Amino acid sequence: MGNILTRLVWLFALLPTSLWADEGARLLKSEEAALLGLTAFEARTHELKVLREVANLTLLPPRLNTNPLPEYSSKNLDYAMTIGIERTPGGRLFAAWIGGEDGPEAFMVLAKSEDDGESWSEPILVIDSQAEHMPIPRSVIVGNLWTDPLGRLWLFFDQTMNHFDGRGGLWATVCENPDADELRWSEPRRIWHGSMLNKPTVLSSGEWVLPVQLLDHRYGFGPFEVGVFPELDPYRGANVLVSSDKGETWTRRGGRKFPNPNWYEHKVIELKNGRLWMLARTQKGVMQSFSSDQGATWADPTFPNEINHPVARFHLQRLASGKLLLIKHGRTIDTHNGRSQLTAWLSDDEGKSWQGGLMLDKRKVISYPDGFQAPDGKIYISYDRNRSTDGEVWMAQFFEEDILAGKIVNPQSKLRIPIFRADD
Q: Domain range spanning residue 32?
Protein backbone atom coordinates (compact mmCIF):
# COMPACT_ATOMS: atom_id res chain seq x y z
CA MET A 1 0.00 0.00 0.00
CA GLY A 2 2.81 2.36 0.87
CA ASN A 3 4.55 1.72 -2.48
CA ILE A 4 1.35 2.38 -4.40
CA LEU A 5 0.78 5.66 -2.58
CA THR A 6 4.36 6.70 -3.32
CA ARG A 7 3.91 5.93 -7.01
CA LEU A 8 0.70 7.93 -7.08
CA VAL A 9 2.39 10.98 -5.58
CA TRP A 10 5.28 10.94 -8.07
CA LEU A 11 3.13 10.18 -11.07
CA PHE A 12 0.64 12.90 -10.23
CA ALA A 13 3.49 15.38 -9.93
CA LEU A 14 4.76 14.49 -13.42
CA LEU A 15 1.53 14.06 -15.34
CA PRO A 16 -0.61 16.88 -16.73
CA THR A 17 -3.68 17.56 -14.65
CA SER A 18 -5.96 16.13 -17.33
CA LEU A 19 -4.31 12.71 -17.01
CA TRP A 20 -4.41 12.45 -13.20
CA ALA A 21 -7.83 10.80 -13.05
CA ASP A 22 -7.02 8.18 -15.70
CA GLU A 23 -3.67 7.18 -14.18
CA GLY A 24 -5.06 7.15 -10.66
CA ALA A 25 -8.00 5.00 -11.72
CA ARG A 26 -5.67 2.51 -13.42
CA LEU A 27 -3.48 2.15 -10.35
CA LEU A 28 -6.44 1.79 -8.00
CA LYS A 29 -8.00 -0.85 -10.21
CA SER A 30 -4.71 -2.77 -10.21
CA GLU A 31 -4.56 -2.57 -6.42
CA GLU A 32 -8.16 -3.73 -6.09
CA ALA A 33 -7.51 -6.74 -8.30
CA ALA A 34 -4.47 -7.72 -6.24
CA LEU A 35 -6.38 -7.51 -2.96
CA LEU A 36 -9.38 -9.46 -4.24
CA GLY A 37 -7.10 -12.38 -4.99
CA LEU A 38 -5.76 -12.75 -1.44
CA THR A 39 -6.43 -15.79 0.71
CA ALA A 40 -7.81 -15.31 4.23
CA PHE A 41 -4.31 -15.66 5.69
CA GLU A 42 -2.84 -13.26 3.13
CA ALA A 43 -5.62 -10.74 3.82
CA ARG A 44 -4.93 -10.90 7.54
CA THR A 45 -1.22 -10.39 6.91
CA HIS A 46 -2.00 -7.40 4.70
CA GLU A 47 -4.25 -5.87 7.38
CA LEU A 48 -1.50 -6.09 9.97
CA LYS A 49 0.97 -4.58 7.51
CA VAL A 50 -1.34 -1.62 6.90
CA LEU A 51 -1.75 -1.08 10.66
CA ARG A 52 2.04 -1.03 11.05
CA GLU A 53 2.27 1.56 8.29
CA VAL A 54 -0.31 3.67 10.10
CA ALA A 55 1.65 3.31 13.35
CA ASN A 56 4.79 4.36 11.48
CA LEU A 57 3.29 7.83 11.21
CA THR A 58 4.60 8.27 14.76
CA LEU A 59 8.17 7.90 13.48
CA LEU A 60 7.84 11.28 11.78
CA PRO A 61 9.45 13.97 13.98
CA PRO A 62 6.83 16.03 15.81
CA ARG A 63 6.71 19.80 15.35
CA LEU A 64 7.59 22.11 18.23
CA ASN A 65 5.15 25.02 18.29
CA THR A 66 7.09 27.81 20.02
CA ASN A 67 4.45 30.42 19.14
CA PRO A 68 1.31 28.67 20.37
CA LEU A 69 -0.79 31.76 21.08
CA PRO A 70 -3.62 32.57 20.70
CA GLU A 71 -4.77 29.07 19.64
CA TYR A 72 -3.44 27.43 22.80
CA SER A 73 -4.00 30.30 25.22
CA SER A 74 -5.24 29.37 28.69
CA LYS A 75 -8.79 30.41 27.89
CA ASN A 76 -8.89 27.83 25.11
CA LEU A 77 -7.62 24.94 27.26
CA ASP A 78 -10.15 22.92 29.26
CA TYR A 79 -8.18 19.84 30.34
CA ALA A 80 -5.00 19.38 32.37
CA MET A 81 -3.10 16.25 33.38
CA THR A 82 0.15 17.27 35.00
CA ILE A 83 3.37 15.82 33.61
CA GLY A 84 6.19 17.43 35.55
CA ILE A 85 7.86 20.44 37.10
CA GLU A 86 11.53 21.48 37.05
CA ARG A 87 13.91 24.27 38.01
CA THR A 88 16.79 25.69 35.96
CA PRO A 89 20.22 26.57 37.42
CA GLY A 90 19.14 30.23 37.43
CA GLY A 91 15.90 29.58 39.31
CA ARG A 92 13.35 29.69 36.49
CA LEU A 93 10.54 27.16 36.89
CA PHE A 94 8.95 25.14 34.10
CA ALA A 95 5.75 23.11 34.30
CA ALA A 96 4.35 20.72 31.68
CA TRP A 97 0.91 19.19 31.40
CA ILE A 98 -1.29 17.37 28.91
CA GLY A 99 -4.09 19.22 27.17
CA GLY A 100 -7.03 17.78 25.26
CA GLU A 101 -7.58 14.54 27.15
CA ASP A 102 -5.83 11.53 28.61
CA GLY A 103 -6.38 9.76 25.32
CA PRO A 104 -6.06 9.99 21.53
CA GLU A 105 -6.59 13.77 21.38
CA ALA A 106 -3.76 14.57 23.84
CA PHE A 107 -1.05 17.19 23.32
CA MET A 108 1.78 18.63 25.45
CA VAL A 109 1.79 22.14 26.97
CA LEU A 110 4.73 23.96 28.62
CA ALA A 111 4.69 27.15 30.73
CA LYS A 112 7.29 28.97 32.86
CA SER A 113 7.52 31.09 36.00
CA GLU A 114 10.04 33.84 36.71
CA ASP A 115 8.98 34.42 40.34
CA ASP A 116 9.35 31.01 42.00
CA GLY A 117 5.86 29.90 41.01
CA GLU A 118 3.88 32.91 42.22
CA SER A 119 2.70 33.51 38.66
CA TRP A 120 2.90 31.52 35.44
CA SER A 121 3.14 32.44 31.78
CA GLU A 122 0.73 31.55 29.05
CA PRO A 123 1.87 28.40 27.18
CA ILE A 124 5.28 28.98 25.58
CA LEU A 125 5.62 25.61 23.85
CA VAL A 126 3.04 23.15 22.56
CA ILE A 127 3.64 19.77 20.92
CA ASP A 128 0.47 18.74 19.13
CA SER A 129 0.71 16.03 16.48
CA GLN A 130 -2.97 16.00 15.54
CA ALA A 131 -3.78 16.54 11.87
CA GLU A 132 -7.05 16.47 9.96
CA HIS A 133 -5.65 14.16 7.29
CA MET A 134 -4.66 11.46 9.80
CA PRO A 135 -6.71 8.24 9.54
CA ILE A 136 -6.80 8.05 13.36
CA PRO A 137 -5.53 10.49 16.02
CA ARG A 138 -1.80 10.81 16.68
CA SER A 139 -1.28 11.86 20.29
CA VAL A 140 1.56 13.37 22.30
CA ILE A 141 1.15 12.19 25.86
CA VAL A 142 3.01 11.58 29.14
CA GLY A 143 6.67 12.37 29.78
CA ASN A 144 8.54 14.66 32.15
CA LEU A 145 10.88 17.61 32.59
CA TRP A 146 14.45 17.16 33.82
CA THR A 147 17.40 19.49 34.37
CA ASP A 148 20.50 17.37 33.80
CA PRO A 149 23.87 17.80 35.59
CA LEU A 150 25.02 20.10 32.75
CA GLY A 151 22.15 22.51 33.38
CA ARG A 152 20.23 21.58 30.23
CA LEU A 153 16.47 21.21 30.36
CA TRP A 154 15.01 18.04 28.83
CA LEU A 155 11.38 17.67 27.81
CA PHE A 156 10.48 13.99 27.34
CA PHE A 157 7.22 12.94 25.70
CA ASP A 158 5.51 10.01 24.03
CA GLN A 159 4.21 10.17 20.45
CA THR A 160 1.80 7.34 19.61
CA MET A 161 -1.27 6.55 17.57
CA ASN A 162 -4.66 6.36 19.25
CA HIS A 163 -3.38 6.73 22.84
CA PHE A 164 -1.25 3.57 22.51
CA ASP A 165 -0.51 1.62 19.34
CA GLY A 166 1.41 -1.23 20.94
CA ARG A 167 4.78 0.44 20.43
CA GLY A 168 4.60 4.12 21.32
CA GLY A 169 7.73 6.19 21.10
CA LEU A 170 9.78 8.10 23.66
CA TRP A 171 11.02 11.41 22.26
CA ALA A 172 13.04 14.26 23.77
CA THR A 173 13.88 17.85 22.99
CA VAL A 174 16.61 19.70 24.91
CA CYS A 175 17.06 23.38 25.75
CA GLU A 176 20.79 24.04 26.19
CA ASN A 177 20.27 27.33 28.06
CA PRO A 178 16.87 27.30 29.79
CA ASP A 179 17.68 30.59 31.58
CA ALA A 180 18.13 32.52 28.32
CA ASP A 181 15.71 35.26 27.27
CA GLU A 182 15.11 33.40 24.00
CA LEU A 183 14.67 29.68 24.48
CA ARG A 184 16.05 27.41 21.77
CA TRP A 185 14.98 23.78 21.62
CA SER A 186 16.75 20.98 19.79
CA GLU A 187 15.02 19.03 17.06
CA PRO A 188 13.06 16.22 18.75
CA ARG A 189 14.73 12.83 18.57
CA ARG A 190 13.27 9.43 19.21
CA ILE A 191 15.09 7.62 22.02
CA TRP A 192 13.29 4.27 22.14
CA HIS A 193 9.88 2.64 22.17
CA GLY A 194 7.36 3.13 24.97
CA SER A 195 7.12 6.14 27.27
CA MET A 196 8.26 7.49 30.65
CA LEU A 197 6.78 9.49 33.53
CA ASN A 198 9.56 9.79 36.12
CA LYS A 199 12.81 11.70 35.92
CA PRO A 200 16.14 10.00 35.16
CA THR A 201 18.53 9.08 37.97
CA VAL A 202 22.26 9.88 37.94
CA LEU A 203 24.22 6.94 39.36
CA SER A 204 27.41 7.20 41.39
CA SER A 205 29.19 5.79 38.32
CA GLY A 206 28.13 8.89 36.36
CA GLU A 207 25.68 6.94 34.19
CA TRP A 208 22.20 8.29 33.63
CA VAL A 209 19.33 5.83 34.11
CA LEU A 210 16.05 6.48 32.31
CA PRO A 211 12.92 4.51 33.33
CA VAL A 212 10.91 3.59 30.21
CA GLN A 213 7.67 1.61 30.18
CA LEU A 214 6.53 -0.57 27.31
CA LEU A 215 3.05 -1.75 28.21
CA ASP A 216 2.46 -5.49 28.29
CA HIS A 217 -1.02 -5.74 29.80
CA ARG A 218 -2.54 -4.88 26.42
CA TYR A 219 -1.09 -4.58 22.93
CA GLY A 220 -2.80 -1.33 22.13
CA PHE A 221 -6.07 0.50 21.91
CA GLY A 222 -8.70 0.39 19.18
CA PRO A 223 -7.47 -1.24 15.97
CA PHE A 224 -4.08 -1.97 17.56
CA GLU A 225 -5.56 -4.41 20.08
CA VAL A 226 -4.75 -7.18 17.61
CA GLY A 227 -1.04 -6.69 18.34
CA VAL A 228 1.03 -5.50 15.38
CA PHE A 229 4.45 -5.42 17.10
CA PRO A 230 5.03 -8.98 18.41
CA GLU A 231 8.79 -8.53 18.08
CA LEU A 232 8.65 -6.12 21.03
CA ASP A 233 7.06 -8.66 23.39
CA PRO A 234 10.40 -9.59 25.04
CA TYR A 235 10.85 -5.94 26.05
CA ARG A 236 7.40 -5.29 27.47
CA GLY A 237 7.51 -4.17 31.07
CA ALA A 238 9.43 -1.67 33.21
CA ASN A 239 12.68 -1.03 31.33
CA VAL A 240 15.80 0.94 32.17
CA LEU A 241 17.81 2.76 29.51
CA VAL A 242 21.31 3.93 30.33
CA SER A 243 23.49 6.70 28.92
CA SER A 244 27.22 6.94 29.61
CA ASP A 245 27.76 9.91 27.27
CA LYS A 246 25.56 12.57 28.89
CA GLY A 247 22.45 11.71 26.93
CA GLU A 248 23.94 11.51 23.44
CA THR A 249 22.95 7.84 23.22
CA TRP A 250 20.70 5.61 25.30
CA THR A 251 20.91 1.81 25.49
CA ARG A 252 18.45 -0.60 27.05
CA ARG A 253 20.21 -2.43 29.88
CA GLY A 254 17.38 -4.50 31.28
CA GLY A 255 13.83 -4.56 32.53
CA ARG A 256 11.27 -6.31 34.66
CA LYS A 257 7.73 -7.55 34.14
CA PHE A 258 5.42 -7.13 37.13
CA PRO A 259 2.35 -9.17 38.02
CA ASN A 260 -1.01 -7.46 37.51
CA PRO A 261 0.59 -4.85 35.25
CA ASN A 262 -0.82 -1.40 34.68
CA TRP A 263 0.87 1.75 33.45
CA TYR A 264 4.22 1.05 35.12
CA GLU A 265 5.27 4.67 35.74
CA HIS A 266 8.31 3.28 37.51
CA LYS A 267 11.17 5.08 39.23
CA VAL A 268 14.72 3.86 39.89
CA ILE A 269 16.80 4.94 42.89
CA GLU A 270 20.40 3.97 43.67
CA LEU A 271 20.69 2.76 47.26
CA LYS A 272 23.73 3.43 49.42
CA ASN A 273 24.81 -0.21 49.14
CA GLY A 274 25.00 0.12 45.35
CA ARG A 275 21.82 -1.78 44.51
CA LEU A 276 19.12 -0.21 42.36
CA TRP A 277 15.61 -0.01 43.78
CA MET A 278 12.66 0.17 41.40
CA LEU A 279 9.13 1.07 42.43
CA ALA A 280 6.36 0.51 39.87
CA ARG A 281 2.60 0.97 39.61
CA THR A 282 0.46 -2.18 39.27
CA GLN A 283 -3.24 -2.95 39.54
CA LYS A 284 -2.57 -4.12 43.10
CA GLY A 285 -0.70 -0.95 44.09
CA VAL A 286 3.01 -0.16 44.23
CA MET A 287 5.46 -3.07 43.87
CA GLN A 288 9.26 -3.17 44.00
CA SER A 289 12.24 -4.93 42.48
CA PHE A 290 15.99 -4.75 43.12
CA SER A 291 19.02 -5.02 40.83
CA SER A 292 22.56 -5.84 41.95
CA ASP A 293 24.13 -5.41 38.51
CA GLN A 294 23.24 -1.81 37.67
CA GLY A 295 19.94 -2.67 36.03
CA ALA A 296 20.82 -5.62 33.81
CA THR A 297 18.72 -8.11 35.81
CA TRP A 298 15.98 -7.58 38.39
CA ALA A 299 14.71 -9.69 41.28
CA ASP A 300 11.19 -11.06 41.53
CA PRO A 301 8.77 -8.25 42.42
CA THR A 302 7.47 -7.91 45.97
CA PHE A 303 5.37 -5.38 47.86
CA PRO A 304 7.46 -2.76 49.68
CA ASN A 305 7.39 -2.50 53.44
CA GLU A 306 4.57 -0.26 54.74
CA ILE A 307 3.75 1.54 51.46
CA ASN A 308 0.06 1.21 50.54
CA HIS A 309 -0.88 3.22 47.49
CA PRO A 310 -3.75 3.22 44.95
CA VAL A 311 -3.43 2.49 41.24
CA ALA A 312 -1.87 5.87 40.52
CA ARG A 313 1.41 7.65 39.98
CA PHE A 314 3.73 8.34 42.94
CA HIS A 315 6.91 10.40 43.30
CA LEU A 316 10.21 9.13 44.73
CA GLN A 317 13.61 10.85 44.89
CA ARG A 318 16.76 11.18 46.97
CA LEU A 319 17.21 14.51 48.69
CA ALA A 320 20.46 16.40 49.30
CA SER A 321 20.39 15.24 52.93
CA GLY A 322 20.61 11.65 51.77
CA LYS A 323 17.05 10.87 52.85
CA LEU A 324 14.44 9.50 50.45
CA LEU A 325 11.31 11.51 49.68
CA LEU A 326 8.06 9.73 48.83
CA ILE A 327 4.88 11.48 47.70
CA LYS A 328 1.87 9.19 47.90
CA HIS A 329 -1.87 9.10 48.52
CA GLY A 330 -3.12 8.38 52.03
CA ARG A 331 -3.21 9.96 55.46
CA THR A 332 -0.84 7.24 56.72
CA ILE A 333 1.99 5.44 54.96
CA ASP A 334 0.14 2.11 54.99
CA THR A 335 -3.35 3.30 53.99
CA HIS A 336 -4.99 5.25 51.20
CA ASN A 337 -8.42 6.48 50.17
CA GLY A 338 -7.98 6.48 46.42
CA ARG A 339 -6.69 9.54 44.62
CA SER A 340 -7.01 11.92 47.54
CA GLN A 341 -4.96 12.99 50.57
CA LEU A 342 -1.63 13.60 48.85
CA THR A 343 1.10 13.35 51.50
CA ALA A 344 4.89 13.64 51.81
CA TRP A 345 7.13 11.16 53.68
CA LEU A 346 10.84 10.79 54.51
CA SER A 347 13.02 7.72 54.99
CA ASP A 348 16.51 7.70 56.51
CA ASP A 349 16.94 3.91 56.24
CA GLU A 350 16.72 3.46 52.45
CA GLY A 351 12.96 2.97 52.30
CA LYS A 352 12.58 0.41 55.10
CA SER A 353 10.51 2.83 57.20
CA TRP A 354 8.94 6.26 56.71
CA GLN A 355 8.44 9.28 58.93
CA GLY A 356 6.38 12.44 58.75
CA GLY A 357 3.19 12.66 56.77
CA LEU A 358 2.77 16.24 55.58
CA MET A 359 -0.67 16.63 54.00
CA LEU A 360 -0.12 18.50 50.75
CA ASP A 361 -3.74 18.38 49.60
CA LYS A 362 -6.59 16.39 51.15
CA ARG A 363 -9.10 17.01 48.35
CA LYS A 364 -10.47 14.25 46.12
CA VAL A 365 -9.47 13.52 42.51
CA ILE A 366 -5.87 14.75 42.83
CA SER A 367 -3.04 12.81 41.25
CA TYR A 368 0.26 12.52 39.36
CA PRO A 369 2.81 14.17 41.69
CA ASP A 370 6.23 15.13 40.37
CA GLY A 371 8.92 17.33 41.84
CA PHE A 372 12.47 18.41 42.59
CA GLN A 373 14.56 19.97 45.36
CA ALA A 374 16.10 23.45 45.01
CA PRO A 375 19.65 24.25 46.22
CA ASP A 376 18.25 25.89 49.38
CA GLY A 377 16.55 22.63 50.35
CA LYS A 378 13.03 23.65 49.39
CA ILE A 379 11.00 20.84 47.82
CA TYR A 380 8.58 21.56 44.95
CA ILE A 381 5.76 19.15 44.05
CA SER A 382 3.21 19.59 41.25
CA TYR A 383 -0.01 17.60 40.82
CA ASP A 384 -3.38 17.88 39.08
CA ARG A 385 -6.98 18.03 40.27
CA ASN A 386 -10.19 17.09 38.44
CA ARG A 387 -8.45 16.84 35.08
CA SER A 388 -11.58 16.77 32.94
CA THR A 389 -14.03 18.95 34.87
CA ASP A 390 -11.81 21.60 36.48
CA GLY A 391 -8.52 21.05 34.67
CA GLU A 392 -6.27 22.29 37.47
CA VAL A 393 -2.51 21.99 38.08
CA TRP A 394 -1.23 22.85 41.57
CA MET A 395 2.10 23.13 43.37
CA ALA A 396 3.34 22.75 46.94
CA GLN A 397 6.59 24.19 48.37
CA PHE A 398 7.95 22.87 51.67
CA PHE A 399 11.03 21.65 53.57
CA GLU A 400 12.08 18.47 55.33
CA GLU A 401 11.17 19.89 58.73
CA ASP A 402 7.60 20.40 57.54
CA ILE A 403 7.36 16.73 56.57
CA LEU A 404 8.70 15.50 59.90
CA ALA A 405 6.41 17.85 61.84
CA GLY A 406 3.40 16.77 59.79
CA LYS A 407 2.50 20.43 59.30
CA ILE A 408 3.95 23.65 57.88
CA VAL A 409 6.56 25.05 60.28
CA ASN A 410 8.92 26.85 57.89
CA PRO A 411 7.67 30.36 57.03
CA GLN A 412 8.88 29.94 53.43
CA SER A 413 6.64 26.95 52.85
CA LYS A 414 3.32 27.22 51.06
CA LEU A 415 0.70 24.74 49.87
CA ARG A 416 -1.89 24.77 47.07
CA ILE A 417 -0.22 27.25 44.74
CA PRO A 418 -2.06 27.33 41.38
CA ILE A 419 -0.07 26.71 38.19
CA PHE A 420 -2.97 26.40 35.76
CA ARG A 421 -6.76 26.37 36.09
CA ALA A 422 -8.88 25.82 33.02
CA ASP A 423 -11.79 27.80 34.41
CA ASP A 424 -9.72 31.01 34.85
A: 2-37
